[in-house]
């Protein structure tokens, strides 16, 4: 399987279908993904908790690849996540990036950055213009 195909399959099976049992099919033992939660790496068991926690807020998620690149051992993609808010079906769109390095068809390194501020603003869990408020010195909460 090509590296980008594996990354697409990861999003399809784990994030879209919510198949947390599939997580172990992708990660080599001991691998943790960085960049999702500040200061913490997520291993397979962490993903098994994180994925349902995030998906509970969303309906009909889809991941659209906007840009992608593949090398001999890595794949990178800029993606747009499209969904609806679980509570009121408000359209949700936010972007993110994922980079994976593979050995023997399994992820041995993963780095992610997703715009969760926009997600949580759209869900009403953060105030609109959170970044602008913070830049102006306002405290949230």
Word description of this protein:
With 141 residues, the chain is an alpha+beta fold. It has a single domain (3-115), classed as Roll (Nuclear Transport Factor 2, Chain: A), CATH 3.10.450.50. Helices cover 30% and strands 39% of the residues. The protein has helices at residues 3-16, 23-26, 44-55, 116-122, 130-135, and strands at 33-37, 40-42, 58-70, 74-85, 91-103, 106-114. The protein has a 6-stranded mixed β-sheet with strand order 2-1-6-5-4-3. The protein is globular, with a radius of gyration of 16 Å. The N and C termini lie far apart (46 Å). The relative contact order is 0.16. The mean pLDDT is 94.
SSE layout:
Elements: H1 3-16, H2 23-26, E1 33-37, E2 40-42, H3 44-55, E3 58-70, E4 74-85, E5 91-103, E6 106-114, H4 116-122, H5 130-135
Parallel strand pairs: 1-6
Antiparallel strand pairs: 1-2, 3-4, 4-5, 5-6
Strand content: 35-45%
Discrete helix count: 5
For the sheet with most strands, the description reads: 6 strands, mixed
The rounded distance between the terminal residues' Cα atoms is 46 Å
CATH architecture descriptor name: Roll
Radius of gyration, Cα only, in angstroms?
Answer: 16 Å
CATH level-3 fold name: Nuclear Transport Factor 2, Chain: A
The sequence of SSEs as H and E is: HHEEHEEEEHH
* Number of DSSP E strands: 6
The helix-and-strand class reads: alpha+beta
Structural shape: globular
The side-by-side strand order for the widest beta sheet comes to: 2-1-6-5-4-3
Supply the CATH class: Alpha Beta
Q: Helix proportion of residues, in percent? A: 25-40%
Instruction: Tally the structural domains.
Output: 1
Mean pLDDT: 94
User: Spans of 5+ residues with little confidence (pLDDT < 50)?
Assistant: none
């Amino acid at each position: 399987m090509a590296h980008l195909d594996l990354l697409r399959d990861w999003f399809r099976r784990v994030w879209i279908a919510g198949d947390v049992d599939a997580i172990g099919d992708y990660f080599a033992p001991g691998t943790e993904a960085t960049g999702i939660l500040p200061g913490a790496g997520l291993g397979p068991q962490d993903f098994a908790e994180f994925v349902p926690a995030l998906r509970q807020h969303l309906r009909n998620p889809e991941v659209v690849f906007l840009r992608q690149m593949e090398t001999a051992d890595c794949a990178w993609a800029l993606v747009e996540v499209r969904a609806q808010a679980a509570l009121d079906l408000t359209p949700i769109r936010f972007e993110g990036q994922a980079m994976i390095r593979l050995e023997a068809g399994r992820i041995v390194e993963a780095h992610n950055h997703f715009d969760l501020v926009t997600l949580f603003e759209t869900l009403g869990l953060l105030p609109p213009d959170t970044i602008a408020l913070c830049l102006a010195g306002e405290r949230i909460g």
